[in-house]
């Protein structure tokens, strides 16, 4: 096996990985970024709507309002001190991106332009605020390009199209990763003092998803296999507006610009579900509303979707009804949502300026993942013990700022804020520690697992198992769940795992770009994460945020105001996960208010009933 040595090894080149690389190298560390995709193909580049920061360029805004929205949006499972860090650091991070050259849209006064987004309010829920900074509907693309250019300038070392398949921990200290060079099939060892996982989400566990094909949860599954627990896995967000059947995302920015959701009777049904914020209620609320409309037979033509309407005449009618002076025209829609119009014209043959778009909820975002503190250090138990040298940031991590449900635009903030903090912390960390030696057998275990997949001569193709996994997750661990559906998913997934380990076969026995082999390995990661998601969801007997149970419709703060952790067993093939539910939620902002003697009925950060 070829060996490389760099002080800091960053796995993943999306927004989180690149931000961490930039800051670790600014701190003087020798940094390598190892990525299975060419960096600018990372999913961050698909982010459309915007990045939230309380700049107050369009109307009054403050970080504390942003923190409040984040906590309320997370249905009070958000760690409150972390939400404050997110909201406060967001402002610096956005201004810094601008200084790096990010071409944000502008106000007439040449300030960064901001748009409304679901759940973003002023003065603790009083009214909607413009907080989402954006570059048309290509915000993520611009962030990724900007950060990549800065990394090149800082001479960060890139290993593109190297897929990390294992983490090396020696005697309780992180000392590197094992990767497959995709163009040759060769194994490489990267010896480092610190490793940061920024491998993104795992939306590909579901059949209808907004996520790219590459989002298979590799980093989370690898960490799990090396003893790191997964936090709050039952919370996976369904974005309300994916293109019907395809799942491709239609940004919430469409509703931010005035777009409305209509049922088969042409009714703006969000008036009934969320009378104050309507179409801009948080994503869990809107996804459930669509589901309920469809279940009540009010889907378009009785089918499984509703309409999202951004036609200027419709939007202006509702602006008038809502008492707003804003009016838009076709040219405005073209300038603010060019990519969305392009997707619909290309994939659906529909022109959204003239016709409504067919949409349905689509699996979108992992709130749970690798537990970390606000400096991106990975935690291995409920009391916050750090695994030395291991870091995680971005969607694969769980800080937890998103709690039970993430607000739109808060992921891009999470990437830049905690990527940056992680990069700085790693820069410091590597200066203070010696090189931990690599174990003698580094890489052998995972090499054997690849040999097993290569040599396995069963009857089942990996893609058949993948389709079955995606279907059971969609049907049984989706927008709504019940004990019955989740038990079904757990049973199905157990059977799929058996077949994965005993009856799999691949067609390609080559070494160069063997996607057949790599996808079979990725399926192993997804099966583990799907199983943990189903088991964690089954265990949480309440509804909170994105976790909605028909059989337990209420939030239960007395028993479930806790983070859950799921530990894997030593044996990768086993589905005996140890689930715990005793990691406390940080309620420090609420505690501060209580200490400051704020009247109990005025306490803002105290969990409140779910009223929208
Ligand atoms: C269509 C869409 C639109 C979105 N819009 C918004 C928005 O407007 N605002 C917002 O805040 N959020 C948005 N999100 C969410 C947000 O974009 C993502 O959560 C975020 O970009 C994830 O960034 P990341 O850096 O964690 O990972 P990603 O950008 O997903 O990158 C993952 C990286 O990890 C690498 N990788 C993965 N596995 C391996 C491996 N085994 N070995 C080596 N490398 C590996 C990949 O090569 C890639 O570089 C959107 C998401 C989608 C899907």
UniProtKB/TrEMBL annotation:
The keyword Cell cycle does not apply. FAD binds at residues 12-17, 35-50, 218, 395, 411-412. Its main location: membrane. Its EC number is 1.3.5.1. One of its GO terms (molecular function) is succinate dehydrogenase (quinone) activity. The modification Tele-8alpha-FAD histidine is found at residue 43. The keyword Cytoplasm does not apply. It catalyses: a quinone + succinate = fumarate + a quinol. Its cofactor is FAD. Pathway: Carbohydrate metabolism; tricarboxylic acid cycle; fumarate from succinate (bacterial route): step 1/1. It is an enzyme of class 1 (oxidoreductase). Belongs to the FAD-dependent oxidoreductase 2 family. FRD/SDH subfamily. PANTHER family: SUCCINATE DEHYDROGENASE 2 FLAVOPROTEIN SUBUNIT (PTHR11632), SUCCINATE DEHYDROGENASE [UBIQUINONE] FLAVOPROTEIN SUBUNIT, MITOCHONDRIAL (PTHR11632:SF51). This is Succinate dehydrogenase flavoprotein subunit.
């Amino acid at each position: 096996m070829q060996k490389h040595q760099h002080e800091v090894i960053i796995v993943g080149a999306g927004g989180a990985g690149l931000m961490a690389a930039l800051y670790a190298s600014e701190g003087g560390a020798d940094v390598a970024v190892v990525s299975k995709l060419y960096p600018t193909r990372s999913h961050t580049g698909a982010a459309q709507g915007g990045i939230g920061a309380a700049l107050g360029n369009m109307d009054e805004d403050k970080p504390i309002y942003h923190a409040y929205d984040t906590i309320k949006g997370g249905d009070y499972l958000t760690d409150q001190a972390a939400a404050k860090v997110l909201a406060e650091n967001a402002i610096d991070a956005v201004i810094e991106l601008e200084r790096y050259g990010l071409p944000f849209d502008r106000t007439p006064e040449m300030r960064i332009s901001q748009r409304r987004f679901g759940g973003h309010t002023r003065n603790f829920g009083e009214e909607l605020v413009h907080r989402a900074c954006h570059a048309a509907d290509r915000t993520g693309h611009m962030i990724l390009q900007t950060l990549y250019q800065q990394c090149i300038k800082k001479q960060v070392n890139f290993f593109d199209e190297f897929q990390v398949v294992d983490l090396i921990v020696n005697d309780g200290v992180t000392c590197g990763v094992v990767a497959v060079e995709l163009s040759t099939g060769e194994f490489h060892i990267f010896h480092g003092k610190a490793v940061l996982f920024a491998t993104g989400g795992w939306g590909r566990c579901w059949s209808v998803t907004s996520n790219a094909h590459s989002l298979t949860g590799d980093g989370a599954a690898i960490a799990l296999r090396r003893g790191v627990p997964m936090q709050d896995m039952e919370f996976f967000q369904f974005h309300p507006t994916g293109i019907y059947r395809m799942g491709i995302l239609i940004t919430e920015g469409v509703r931010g610009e005035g777009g409305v959701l209509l049922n088969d009777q042409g009714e703006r049904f969000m008036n009934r579900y969320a009378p104050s914020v309507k179409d801009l209620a948080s994503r869990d609320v809107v996804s459930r509303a669509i589901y309920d409309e469809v279940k009540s037979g009010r889907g378009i033509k009785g089918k499984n979707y509703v309409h999202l309407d951004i036609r200027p005449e419709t939007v202006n009618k509702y602006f008038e009804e809502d008492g707003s002076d804003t009016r838009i025209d076709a040219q405005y829609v073209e300038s603010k949502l060019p990519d969305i119009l392009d997707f619909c014209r290309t994939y659906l043959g529909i022109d959204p300026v003239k016709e409504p778009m067919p949409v349905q909820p689509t699996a979108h975002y992992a709130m749970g993942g690798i537990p970390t503190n606000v400096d991106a250090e990975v935690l291995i138990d409920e009391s916050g013990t750090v695994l030395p040298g291991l870091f995680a940031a971005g969607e694969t991590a769980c800080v937890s700022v998103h709690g039970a449900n993430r607000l739109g635009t808060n992921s891009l903030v999470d990437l830049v804020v905690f990527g940056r903090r992680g990069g700085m912390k790693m820069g410091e960390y590597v200066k203070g520690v010696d090189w931990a030696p690599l174990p003698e057998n580094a890489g052998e275990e995972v090499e054997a697992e690849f040999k097993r997949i290569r040599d396995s001569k069963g009857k089942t193709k990996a893609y058949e198992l993948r389709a079955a996994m995606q279907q059971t997750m969609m049907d049984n661990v989706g927008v709504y769940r019940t004990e019955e559906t989740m038990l079904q998913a757990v049973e199905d997934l157990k059977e799929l795992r058996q077949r994965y380990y005993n009856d799999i076969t691949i067609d390609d026995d080559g070494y160069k770009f063997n996607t057949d082999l790599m996808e079979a390995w990725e399926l192993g990661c997804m099966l583990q994460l799907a199983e943990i998601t189903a088991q964690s969801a089954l265990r949480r007997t309440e509804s909170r945020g994105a976790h909605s149970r028909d059989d337990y419709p209420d939030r239960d703060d007395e028993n479930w105001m806790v983070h859950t952790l799921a530990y894997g067993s030593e044996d990768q093939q086993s589905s005996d996960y140890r689930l715990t539910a005793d990691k406390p939620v940080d309620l420090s902002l609420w505690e501060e208010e209580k200490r400051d003697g704020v009247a109990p009925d005025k306490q803002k950060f105290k969990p409140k009933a779910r009223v929208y």
